[in-house]
Amino acid sequence: MFKKILIANRGEIACRVIRSAQKMGIGTVAVYSEADKDSLHVELADEAVCIGPAPSRESYLVMDKIIAACKETGAEAVHPGYGFLSENEAFSRRLEEEGIKFIGPRHYSVGKMGDKIESKKLAQAAGVSTIPGHNEAISGPDEAVKIAQKIGYPVMIKASAGGGGKGLRVAYNDKEAHEGFASCVNEAKNSFGDDRVFIEKFVEEPRHIEIQVLGDSFGNVLYLNERECSIQRRHQKVIEEAPSPFLDTETRKKMGEQAVALAKAVQYESAGTVEFVVGKNRDFYFLEMNTRLQVEHPVTEYITGLDLVEQMIRVAAGEKLSIRQEDVKINGWAMECRINAEDPFRGFLPSTGRLTWFKPPLASETVRVDTGVYEGGEISMFYDSMIAKLIVHGKDRAEAIQHMRNALNAFVIRGISANIPFQAALMQHPRFQSGNFNTGLIAEEYPQGFDASMVPHDDPELLISVAAFVHRCWQDRAAKISGQLPGHERQVGSEWVVLRKGHGRYPVVAQPIAGGYAVEYEGRTYEVLSDWKLGELLFNGTCNGKPFTLQVERHRMVYQLFHWGTRADMMVMSARAAELLAMMPEKAPPDLSRFLISPMPGLLREIAVEVGMEVKQGEKLVVIEAMKMENILRAENDCKVKKISAKVGDSLAVDEVIIEFE
Question: What average pLDDT score do residues 361-387 get?
């Protein structure tokens, strides 16, 4: 067994690998960019080596720096995690030449299957059903349009070395094919150092289901069942689960055996994933093989009881697999939500900055959190948006969903925006709960974006009662402040009006009881008991004996409650104050229609207009890169450019003015 390994990655996957290695008694070496010098994976590792500036092309993607760090520290092997160099054939070969073990498949397997174009050719030669498409690298946007026309729209434009939704676009017409090709090439070059792009038919109403495989150097290959990965936004996975609610035993076996046959054809060693697109009749087609550990591997670990990182290390050290196919079982149900630094209320735009609060739910047998951040740390614009993975396990799918809902309610993140409200809303969406969905669910159900007001809360009395509870806590403390004149102490009444923005007013009576408050509303009494303290974000308690968890923030007169994907803005006041408030005029927002402002922090990659230029609605204005994704900002109306306030290469802040129009 190895004595020391180096993890050629960052963030939560680096922390994940470090923990398994340390459990096995193996020393660990972290590498980090200048932007990551204070990161959690650096703190967890036994040793750490700085490998360059923040941009990944100058640090995490530089093979020579990784190899030099191995030699400097005496690391015998490298675990690449996912992304970066994890599926780079040249990197795997270089390590082999240097006598350093690659904790992953051999370079020839990476070369054959890590490249999407070559892997599809090999799958076809092996008799595996594949999706129609053009399997050669495309030279330019004009050729992309011609090929797309020949295949028939819609088509999927994909970077050959892509992954994680980067370098991928769906085009429904010539214009989208032309622009999508350019964006895919740029994203692929920046993220993977490989700008080859190919095109295949986009299967409508598909399900994305993948098979986890595990092989050793003795020719043994197993499949560890499937993962359902159909809940996606912009082709990036949002929720994963195992097993799939769609597959039956027969289809699972067929897909697993086909995945194993494909892996054996390339003498596959280590953990890998064979991805399929599955039709409504359970017909399935090979998409690609990821020759690395997947982001969603924890759900497979939950239902099989295997530590996949440990298995990868043991295989790389020359050990034989200790289990057989008949030993692989399905134990219960597991789900994973990707917690991303993005604002679901602003079109899921990236969010960067300092984590002023970061308190994940407590780990248990049914709840697991994989993360690479900590409270007080910085979320950088240079890397992807995922900051944590929340994984739960239940005896069946319904129980897993309930565990996830509770865990999302308890996940506290402040300082940046996160997609937790959206994840919580998906958990209670009827289509998701039924299991009857495909990869288009999010686009179909939220075509205009997401807003918490779109999610009706099925227990509004709970929100009203908690708002009254919190307000009484603040009022009762104010009545106890010292220095009040004897005989003139502040008196706290019991009759209040709860106002919820956009919903109405609710008269309540809130009286203190042992351990909390009794709130009377519409003739019913809700006894809310909790040891919550003023200023705490997490509110755990019971309402009429039923336990609940929600989050509460106070902003002057407004209490913001977060529960089950809903954000409720509540105010509590006397009846007279509520009457007077209704008479107050609302301040009109400023007119910003003459400005193009940055909706996110990011790097200004391109300015497509000049001063004095007439611009038509829908035309491209600028391109902003944030968290390794390109975002095109277009003109909302016909306009003329008066002033350009930024230049290419500038780091933009949220709401920073880029262009002023006449």
Answer: 94
Cβ atoms of 428 and 371 within 8 Å: the answer is no
pLDDT at 402 over 70: yes
Cα 245 to Cα 240: distance, rounded to the nearest angstrom: 11
What is the model's pLDDT at position 638? 93
Question: 460-479+492-581: which CATH architecture?
Answer: 2-Layer Sandwich (3.30)
- β-strands 207-215, 221-233 pairing: antiparallel
Average pLDDT over residues 86-97: 95
Query: Higher model confidence: residue 478 or residue 81?
Result: 81
Residue 128 confidence (pLDDT): 82
Q: 132-201 in CATH: which number?
A: 3.30.1490.20
Give percent helix, percent strand, percent coil of the chain, each to the nearest 5: 30, 35, 40
Whether residue 193 is predicted with pLDDT greater than 90 in this model: the reply is no
Residue pair 166/629 in contact by the 8 Å Cβ criterion? yes
Query: What is the rounded (10 degree) CA torsion for 317, 319, 325, 326?
Result: -130
The more confident residue out of 257 and 195 is 257
Answer yes or no: are the C-beta atoms of 85 and 95 closer than 8 Å: no
Give the residue numbers marked as catalytic. 288
> What torsion, rounded to 10 degrees, do the Cα atoms 387, 393, 396, 401 define?
-40
Please name which of 276, 274, 262 lies closest in space to residue 224, comparing C-alpha atoms. Answer: 274
What CATH code would you report for 106-131+208-331? 3.30.470.20
pLDDT above 70 (res 140) = yes
pLDDT of residue 544 exceeding 90? yes
| CATH code of the domain made up of 595-661 | 2.40.50.100
Strands (E), 330-427: 333-340, 342-343, 349-350, 353-354, 357-359, 367-371, 378-379, 386-394, 412-414
Structure token digits, residue 606: 């391109």
Domains 132-201 and 595-661 share a fold: no
Please report which helix (H) or strand (E) contains residue 399, including its range.
helix 397-409
**pTM higher than the cut 0.70:** yes
- For the 338-451 domain, the top CATH level (class) is alpha beta
Give the mean pLDDT of 221-226: 98
Q: How far is CA 75 from the centre of its chain?
A: 31
Check residue 163 and give its pLDDT. Answer: 66
Q: Which amino acid is at 571?
A: M
Residue 516's contacts (CB-CB under 8 Å, 6 or more residues apart) are: 469, 527, 528, 529, 530, 541
